[in-house]
Amino acid sequence: MHYHIGTMLIDENFDGRIECPVCRIQKKIDERLTEQYLGEGVMEDDTRKEVNKLGFCLHHYSKLHASRSKLGLALQVSTRLNTVISNVEKAKNTKTAKKQAENVLNLGKTCVVCKYLNMHMVRYYKTIAQVYHNVESFRQRLKDTPGFCLEHYAELLNYSSFAGKEQENYLADLYQVEIKLLENLKENVDDFTIHNDYRNIGKPISKESKECLKTASCVFYGEEK
What we know:
Blueprint: H1 8-13, H2 21-36, H3 45-54, H4 58-65, H5 70-87, H6 94-107, H7 112-134, H8 136-143, H9 150-158, H10 167-195, H11 207-210, H12 212-221
């Protein structure tokens, strides 16, 4: 594969390991973006405005709180509180109370890091399809991928048109990879249930069957960020 800034993470993570390669790409981007909110640059006017407006989800707030820069986080929380305070008003009746409740709940549904993470991930969904179209050797690497979490499988399908004239083959390869993962997982889960029946306790069980519930978590919910 020819290296450039848009394909380097793809080349690094489509390596045949058992984890969803797109989850690993997302995790690396997540770490880079979160790191950006730990430096002095977070107090620049444009950044302050976005933090004020969007705030952080629990996942990214927790990552920032666990970091070395508590003061940086405190300054951003102070900024975010301006928006929160402006949205908390005394309700005059049940109708305005419901509107107030909606406004308050919406405050917890936005995150400045998630905004940019999602933008980056859309670019990667498109680029993976484009690499499949442009780089013949990558097609076999995709076929050798053990599979994807359901979210990333769905997103790859959503942006499959970027594979151009290879999109039919791209869709077929994505399907074959994913259905193999799901069918193997089902087989391992069924084997796990059999071996955990009291009548079969002590009988040999494969490593894949032992770890099937962890694998199922990765498939259903993706890798932990």
